[in-house]
Amino acid sequence: xxxxxVGVVGAGTMGSGIAQLAAQQGFEVVLYDLSExxxxxxxxxxxxxxxxxxxxxxxxEEDKNAAMSRIRSTSELEALRDGSVVIEAVVENMAVxxxxxxxxxxxxxxxxxxxxxxxxxxxTELAEATQRPDRVAGMHFFNPAPVMKLVEVVRGLKSSDDxxxxxxxxxxxxxxxxIEVKKDSxxxxxxxIMVPQFIEAIRLVEEGxxxxxxxxxxxxxxxxxxxxxxxxxxxxxxxxxxxVMDYFYEEFKDERFAAPLSLxxxxxxxxxxxxxxxxWYDYKPKQ
Length: 287
Ligand SMILES: NC(=O)c1ccc[n+]([C@@H]2O[C@H](COP(=O)([O-])OP(=O)(O)OC[C@H]3O[C@@H](n4cnc5c(N)ncnc54)[C@H](O)[C@@H]3O)[C@@H](O)[C@H]2O)c1
Fold this sequence. Notes:
- The protein is α/β, with parallel strands linked by helices and about 290 residues long.
- It has eleven helices and eight strands.
- The protein has an eight-stranded mixed beta sheet with strand order 3-2-1-4-5-6-7-8, sandwiched between helices.
């Protein structure tokens, strides 16, 4: 049986990772971004990631080429028309996402499911940009999408059981372990737990209790986490962490989510991490 067509909107970090994953699992993929240039960048990111797997002996050259040949890249949204599931992974901006969902709604067949990879925005609000909010739900992958096992499938207020079941099944077909987030709540599960840990880790450094390096070491060796809170912030981008804290604070009106001042200072100093090594490490707070 030939697998269904998966559409992916946005060929950035997450979109290209999701497209790669789906293609490797045998789906036909249509990958869309705003321009030929942007979508070509996504395609070269995928080729490079697959190339690395070939180098490491985890993939044959043949499998790499087969996966690449299953991805059609496009700068025309209309090319997603035949997708049975379309996963949106564009910038974290409600207005931009709403416009895409309204256009997808007008384009896709009646059985299609529209999923968003948003990390924090309301699925329920986004679904209202369409005439069929029952066919909209969250499908939250983690970075890097081809590697990380978890997918949070998030139920908006009007998501149908059928749409949720469809996304849970798709996640399993993609080799993932999905869990259902039964309510559309800010940060879903993982980020809701992770953000207070980031905040507490930063407070320990602000209070002079330990350095970022030693907090990371403590968490890795004492809690058996693969990465410490500072390494993880630097990897994901320190500014993204602040953005999520501010969003939680706004939504929950709870002091627990108030961003520490030193985090804002770090970002003002231009130290945003993302593998540059210029994030939290070697940070010396002013006493
Ligand atoms: N990076 C992560 O660790 C991570 C993890 C889970 C979820 N997310 C979520 O995934 C989404 C994408 O994040 P990312 O890190 O891949 O971002 P990114 O900046 O790497 O990529 C975003 C892509 O969207 C494209 N884009 C912007 N506007 C568009 C439009 N109108 N139509 C089509 N494409 C458009 C951009 O050209 C870019 O290629 C966000 O909602 C983010 O919150 C990110």
